[in-house]
UniProtKB/TrEMBL annotation:
Residue span(s) of domain HTH marR-type: 14-149
Superkingdom of the source species: Bacteria
Pfam families linked to this entry: MarR_2
Keywords carried by this UniProt record: DNA-binding, Transcription, Transcription regulation
One example GO MF annotation: DNA binding
Matches recorded under InterPro entries: HTH_MarR-typ, MarR/SlyA-like, Tscrpt_reg_MarR-type_CS, WH-like_DNA-bd_sf, WH_DNA-bd_sf
PANTHER family, alphabetized: HTH-TYPE TRANSCRIPTIONAL REPRESSOR YETL, TRANSCRIPTIONAL REGULATOR, MARR FAMILY
The protein, known as: DNA-binding transcriptional regulator, MarR family
Keyword Transcription attributed: yes
Length: 154
Protein backbone atom coordinates (compact mmCIF):
# COMPACT_ATOMS: atom_id res chain seq x y z
CA UNK A 1 0.00 0.00 0.00
CA UNK A 2 2.91 2.37 0.59
CA UNK A 3 4.36 1.88 -2.91
CA UNK A 4 1.59 3.78 -4.74
CA UNK A 5 1.89 6.64 -2.24
CA UNK A 6 5.64 6.90 -2.86
CA UNK A 7 5.14 6.81 -6.64
CA UNK A 8 2.42 9.44 -6.41
CA UNK A 9 4.58 11.67 -4.20
CA UNK A 10 7.51 11.37 -6.60
CA UNK A 11 5.23 12.18 -9.54
CA UNK A 12 4.05 15.41 -7.89
CA UNK A 13 7.54 16.62 -6.94
CA UNK A 14 8.00 18.68 -10.14
CA UNK A 15 4.62 20.30 -9.41
CA UNK A 16 5.75 21.31 -5.93
CA UNK A 17 9.01 22.72 -7.28
CA UNK A 18 7.05 24.58 -9.97
CA UNK A 19 4.73 26.18 -7.42
CA UNK A 20 7.62 27.12 -5.15
CA UNK A 21 9.42 28.68 -8.09
CA UNK A 22 6.33 30.60 -9.20
CA UNK A 23 5.68 31.87 -5.67
CA UNK A 24 9.32 32.93 -5.36
CA UNK A 25 9.07 34.71 -8.70
CA UNK A 26 5.93 36.54 -7.55
CA UNK A 27 7.52 37.53 -4.21
CA UNK A 28 10.66 38.85 -5.94
CA UNK A 29 8.60 40.74 -8.51
CA UNK A 30 6.54 42.39 -5.76
CA UNK A 31 9.68 43.33 -3.82
CA UNK A 32 11.43 44.78 -6.88
CA UNK A 33 8.27 46.57 -7.98
CA UNK A 34 8.14 48.33 -4.60
CA UNK A 35 11.78 49.40 -4.92
CA UNK A 36 11.29 50.70 -8.45
CA UNK A 37 8.02 52.45 -7.53
CA UNK A 38 9.88 54.27 -4.75
CA UNK A 39 11.86 55.92 -7.58
CA UNK A 40 8.60 56.96 -9.27
CA UNK A 41 8.81 54.36 -12.03
CA UNK A 42 6.83 51.34 -13.13
CA UNK A 43 8.62 48.10 -14.00
CA UNK A 44 8.05 48.61 -17.77
CA UNK A 45 9.44 52.16 -17.51
CA UNK A 46 12.49 50.89 -15.61
CA UNK A 47 12.98 48.09 -18.16
CA UNK A 48 13.01 50.61 -20.99
CA UNK A 49 15.34 53.06 -19.22
CA UNK A 50 17.76 50.32 -18.14
CA UNK A 51 17.79 48.91 -21.68
CA UNK A 52 18.82 52.34 -22.96
CA UNK A 53 21.73 52.40 -20.49
CA UNK A 54 23.06 49.38 -22.41
CA UNK A 55 22.70 50.98 -25.84
CA UNK A 56 21.36 54.41 -26.60
CA UNK A 57 20.41 55.50 -30.08
CA UNK A 58 18.38 52.42 -30.95
CA UNK A 59 15.02 52.75 -32.67
CA UNK A 60 11.66 52.05 -31.07
CA UNK A 61 11.46 48.86 -33.14
CA UNK A 62 14.79 47.63 -31.75
CA UNK A 63 13.65 48.60 -28.27
CA UNK A 64 10.44 46.57 -28.71
CA UNK A 65 12.48 43.53 -29.78
CA UNK A 66 14.80 43.82 -26.78
CA UNK A 67 11.88 44.21 -24.36
CA UNK A 68 9.82 41.40 -25.97
CA UNK A 69 6.80 43.68 -26.43
CA UNK A 70 4.92 45.10 -29.39
CA UNK A 71 5.95 48.29 -31.18
CA UNK A 72 2.65 49.82 -30.06
CA UNK A 73 3.41 49.14 -26.40
CA UNK A 74 6.85 50.72 -26.74
CA UNK A 75 5.43 53.71 -28.57
CA UNK A 76 3.01 54.53 -25.74
CA UNK A 77 5.66 53.91 -23.10
CA UNK A 78 8.17 56.13 -24.90
CA UNK A 79 5.51 58.85 -25.29
CA UNK A 80 5.00 58.89 -21.50
CA UNK A 81 8.74 58.88 -20.79
CA UNK A 82 9.32 61.72 -23.28
CA UNK A 83 6.53 63.67 -21.57
CA UNK A 84 8.16 63.02 -18.19
CA UNK A 85 11.50 64.31 -19.49
CA UNK A 86 13.30 60.97 -19.13
CA UNK A 87 13.76 59.98 -22.79
CA UNK A 88 14.36 61.95 -25.99
CA UNK A 89 13.51 60.98 -29.55
CA UNK A 90 16.16 62.14 -32.01
CA UNK A 91 15.84 62.04 -35.77
CA UNK A 92 17.87 59.38 -37.58
CA UNK A 93 19.64 60.83 -40.61
CA UNK A 94 18.18 59.47 -43.83
CA UNK A 95 15.13 57.90 -42.14
CA UNK A 96 12.08 60.13 -41.77
CA UNK A 97 9.96 57.50 -40.02
CA UNK A 98 12.31 56.32 -37.26
CA UNK A 99 13.80 58.00 -34.24
CA UNK A 100 16.76 57.12 -32.08
CA UNK A 101 15.96 56.79 -28.37
CA UNK A 102 18.23 58.56 -25.85
CA UNK A 103 18.13 59.06 -22.10
CA UNK A 104 17.97 62.54 -20.65
CA UNK A 105 20.23 63.23 -17.66
CA UNK A 106 17.25 62.63 -15.33
CA UNK A 107 16.37 59.42 -17.20
CA UNK A 108 19.93 58.18 -16.78
CA UNK A 109 19.92 59.09 -13.07
CA UNK A 110 16.69 57.15 -12.46
CA UNK A 111 17.87 54.17 -14.53
CA UNK A 112 21.11 54.00 -12.57
CA UNK A 113 19.24 54.30 -9.26
CA UNK A 114 16.96 51.44 -10.32
CA UNK A 115 19.92 49.30 -11.40
CA UNK A 116 21.59 49.96 -8.03
CA UNK A 117 18.37 48.93 -6.22
CA UNK A 118 18.21 45.76 -8.31
CA UNK A 119 21.86 44.90 -7.63
CA UNK A 120 21.32 45.45 -3.91
CA UNK A 121 18.26 43.18 -3.92
CA UNK A 122 20.13 40.45 -5.81
CA UNK A 123 23.12 40.72 -3.46
CA UNK A 124 20.86 40.37 -0.42
CA UNK A 125 19.00 37.35 -1.81
CA UNK A 126 20.66 35.26 -4.51
CA UNK A 127 24.04 36.69 -3.60
CA UNK A 128 23.88 34.94 -0.23
CA UNK A 129 24.17 31.51 -1.86
CA UNK A 130 27.50 29.71 -1.67
CA UNK A 131 29.40 29.73 -4.97
CA UNK A 132 28.87 25.99 -5.55
CA UNK A 133 25.13 26.35 -4.91
CA UNK A 134 24.91 29.31 -7.28
CA UNK A 135 26.75 27.37 -9.99
CA UNK A 136 24.37 24.41 -9.52
CA UNK A 137 21.30 26.66 -9.54
CA UNK A 138 22.49 28.33 -12.73
CA UNK A 139 23.05 24.92 -14.34
CA UNK A 140 19.54 23.80 -13.39
CA UNK A 141 17.86 27.02 -14.52
CA UNK A 142 19.60 26.81 -17.89
CA UNK A 143 18.58 23.17 -18.25
CA UNK A 144 14.97 24.04 -17.39
CA UNK A 145 15.10 26.92 -19.90
CA UNK A 146 16.33 24.53 -22.59
CA UNK A 147 13.44 22.14 -21.86
CA UNK A 148 10.99 25.06 -22.16
CA UNK A 149 12.54 26.13 -25.46
CA UNK A 150 12.22 22.57 -26.77
CA UNK A 151 8.51 22.61 -25.92
CA UNK A 152 8.13 25.90 -27.82
CA UNK A 153 9.88 24.38 -30.84
CA UNK A 154 7.48 21.42 -31.01
Amino acid sequence: MTAPKIVQQAATEPDRVWFRFMRLHQRMLMQMTARIRALGLSIPQFDLLSTLTEQEGISQSELAERLYVTKGNVSGLVDRLVQAGLVERRAIAGDRRSYAMHLTPEGRRLAEAGIAAQRDFVANTLGKLETDDLVELDRLVLLWRDFARAVDAE
